[in-house]
Amino acid sequence: MMKNNTEAYRPHLTPAPNRLLGKRALVTGGARGIGQAIASRFAQEGADICIVDIDVSGAEQTLQDLHSPGACVMAVQADVADRSSVEQAVEQAIAGMGSLDVLVNNAGIITFGSLMECRLEDWDRMMAVDLTGAFHCTQVAAQRMVQQGRGGRLIHLGSTAALMPAPQQFAYSVAKSGLKMLSQCAALELAPHNITSNLLCPQGAITDINRELLRDPELMKAIEKKIPVRRLASVEEIAAAAAFLASDEAAFITGTELVHDGGCTISGLWWR
Ligand SMILES: NC(=O)c1ccc[n+]([C@@H]2O[C@H](COP(=O)([O-])OP(=O)(O)OC[C@H]3O[C@@H](n4cnc5c(N)ncnc54)[C@H](O)[C@@H]3O)[C@@H](O)[C@H]2O)c1
Fold first, then answer.
1. Is 161 inside any structural domain?
2. The whole model's pTM is what?
3. Is 172 a catalytic residue?
4. What is the total count of domains within the chain?
């Protein structure tokens, strides 16, 4: 069977060995999808990794698959929406790794629906995980980074929905645009401490969120045709962008958005 463009085009991604050596990173939502790819990429570049996820068996599976010679890798179960669970997770991460240099706020959920259909419980859970969860993790991690006095990196998984309203993703768009402002406020406040904060905004990576939908070859072809670069992203490409933001090469980049969408935003387009 003919491969679709997304399968046929495999960018040549080469992790920079040792680029993140000596950095201790906490990645939320690393049990699968984008967070798993970020944990894997960071480990390949030499970082110590603590995965914090509600799904601890998935997080432990990720650890087993990491290629991380000599690195400290660990998994902690926590619900990012729960403050005390986040505080304990950050403490455990620091106790295990020795310090904390990079936080990746990746854990997230999505509920679909418009403003008119949005149920209060869906709104509440969306805000609790995607926005308040990121607030908990950012505040607790940043307090520790400031105490440590050796700078740090905050990387938040936004979405192009943070930049323009996504159809049928009302609560998600509101939460992600709130996360954009959280990132900017953190960037301004924490800049004197040499802590950067940036929003990584993907659209259209294949994960468990959409894998089932994209099984239909005809639909896949139609979607690819709508995207300016004519394919979807891989989670590994997003992880490569996150690794750059975590690296010393990005030390002067703060308070901004890295849009990772194959040109969708500039064409005002949603592939879904
Ligand atoms: N896949 C995409 O195309 C896409 C596009 C834009 C933005 N994003 C964002 O990227 C991030 C990762 O998305 P993904 O596609 O990999 O999703 P995913 O569903 O594959 O993975 C999400 C991970 O977060 C964890 N998680 C969920 N709720 C949690 C909670 N309360 N506490 C701790 N962990 C929790 C899950 O267990 C899972 O491991 C999300 O923030 C999402 O909004 C994804």
1. yes
2. 0.97
3. yes
4. 1
Q: How far apart are CA 115 and CA 265, in angstroms?
A: 22
- Ligand 1 centre distance from Cα of residue 271 (Å): 18
Query: Which atom from ligand 1 is nearest to the alpha carbon of 233?
Result: 3
Does a structural domain hold residue 222?
Answer: no
Model confidence at 172, in pLDDT bands (50, 70, 90)? very high
Domain assignment of residue 214, yes or no: no
- State whether the beta carbon of 107 lies less than 6 angstroms from ligand 1: yes
With respect to residue 6, please indicate whether it lies within any of the assigned structural domains: no
The DSSP result for 82-136, as a single string, is -HHHHHHHHHHHHHHHSS--EEEE-------B-TTT--HHHHHHHIIIIIIHHHH
pLDDT tens string 45-95: 999 999 999 999 999 999 999 877 778 999 999 999 999 999 999 999 999
Q: Whose CA is nearest to atom 8 of ligand 1?
A: 159
Helix (H) or strand (E) holding 244: helix 235-246
Q: Which of 42, 135, 170, 172 is catalytic?
A: 172
104: CATH: 3.40.50.720
Q: Is 157 in the pocket of ligand 1 (CB under 6 A)?
A: yes
What is the predicted pLDDT for the residue at 266?
A: 94
Query: Residue 39 in contact with residue 27, Cβ under 8 Å?
Result: yes
Q: 109 alpha carbon to ligand 1 midpoint, in Å?
A: 5
Q: For residue 187, what are the contacts with CB-CB under 8 A and spacing of at least 6?
A: 196, 197, 198, 254, 255, 256
- pLDDT tens digits along 230-272: 999 999 999 999 999 999 999 999 999 999 999 999 998 786 6
Domain range for 105: 19-209+233-260
At residue 157, φ and ψ (nearest 5 deg) are -80, 100
Q: How far is the CA of 155 from the centre of ligand 1 (A)?
A: 14
